[in-house]
Design brief:
single chain; 366 residues; Cytidine Deaminase, domain 2; 3 domains; ten-stranded mixed β-sheet
């Protein structure tokens, strides 16, 4: 399947349909063989709580950066590609999570048009099957280098007829201004999204101009454009603050869980070591293994006295205590022996001094 889109076409959708019908007759557009299957995955939305939109679109940082880089590679011609991801659901409803970007290789590029050729679709499906087998095509993108992000009639026709799934969307980006617009199919027709999320952070889409009345023409209950823009900015800021609080709360929760796991692991290791020590080194009393006869002289007779030989597996902690006591006893014995030696030396010196009392008196005076 391949088609060609143009950005400068008649304003009516009938003219766009006529152009595509002519292109199809010429062999440039083929609509057969396009099937969409939605596999809904249950997972939390990667953004702030309470986020609302016609369709919540969440892009990861890497594919969004890849999309921007692809758009900036060609500032004179349009580029195109598809967005691969999953259709997810949480407590607040369905949302789309974009996890990959597949470039439209071999597409025919022009300053105001881009053509998805048969080679382009073959490359897209081969890449999807080989590199992203668990993902599905959830949308398409193209660039408008230098002339805004308003969807043309051909863009809307392509979105309505080729990406008609309720969770498939179109994204257009202007690489010069950085503006982004997203539209999708709804029961009331194609509508633009006001916001999307990149790595959990809210981003604002550029809505078509002139859709809301100016201040002097505002009907009762409708906000002027300036007020609406301010409210959207405030809402985006509140959403970012809520997301930051949620991230901090999740980080604090993970830290507490980590500390709890470490404490529980320490308790388990201590209990395991205690049980292993009690099993390995049981505090059993000494066991008598044999008797050894020892001759003893009692008066003029020699008698044999049986001495029992016992076996005792000394527990490590008791063995350590006994070794400590033995070491302290040895130190005390050494100190006592040193003290006795000093006393004997002092006594001998005193004896020598008392045995020679006149040595100092007999010395001649100077």
């Amino acid at each position: 399947m391949f088609f060609r889109k143009k950005s400068k076409l008649p304003a009516s959708s009938q003219a766009a349909s006529t152009n595509v019908a002519c292109a199809q007759a010429e062999g440039r557009v083929s609509v057969e063989g396009w099937e969409t299957t939605e596999r809904v995955v249950r997972r939390p939305f990667p953004g702030p709580r309470g986020a609302t939109a016609l369709l919540r679109v969440a892009l990861e940082r890497a594919p969004y950066a890849e999309l921007i880089a692809h758009a900036k590679e060609s500032l004179e011609k349009e580029i195109c590609g598809v967005l691969a991801g999953t259709v997810c659901e949480d407590q607040e409803g369905v949302f789309v999570h974009v996890a990959a970007v597949i470039r439209g290789a071999a597409a025919a590029h022009g300053s105001t048009h881009v053509t998805f050729t048969q080679e382009t679709w073959n490359h897209i499906h081969e890449t999807l099957d080989l590199e992203f087998p668990k993902l599905q095509i959830v949308g398409w993108y193209h660039s408008h280098p230098g002339f805004g992000v308003k969807f043309s009639e051909m863009d809307l026709f392509i979105q309505k007829n080729f990406f008609s799934g309720p969770t498939q969307f179109a994204l257009v980006i202007d690489p010069l201004s950085g503006a982004v617009a997203i539209c999708l199919n709804t029961p009331s027709g194609i509508q633009n999204l006001e916001r999307f999320w990149v790595d959990g952070r809210e981003q604002t889409c550029q809505a078509p101009k002139g859709r809301r009345p100016q201040p002097e023409f505002c009907a009762p209950g409708e906000a002027p454009l300036e007020t609406e823009a301010a409210l959207r900015a405030l809402e985006a800021r509140l959403g970012q603050l809520i997301q930051i609080v949620d991230e901090q709360r999740a980080s604090h929760y993970r830290f507490l869980v980590f500390i709890g796991i470490v404490i529980c692991a320490g308790v388990v290791v201590a209990l395991g070591y205690t049980m292993y020590s009690n099993y390995r080194y049981r505090n059993e009393p000494p066991r008598m293994t044999q008797y050894v006869p020892v001759p003893v002289q009692v008066g003029d007779k020699t008698v044999l006295v049986g001495v029992g030989v016992a076996q005792w597996q000394v527990p490590p902690e008791l063995n350590a205590i006994m070794l400590t006591l033995e070491r302290e006893k040895r130190l005390l014995d050494e100190k006592a022996a040193l003290g006795e030696t000093n006393n004997e030396n002092a006594s001998s010196n005193l004896t020598n001094a008392s045995s020679n009392p006149t040595n100092t008196a007999d010395q001649p005076k100077p």
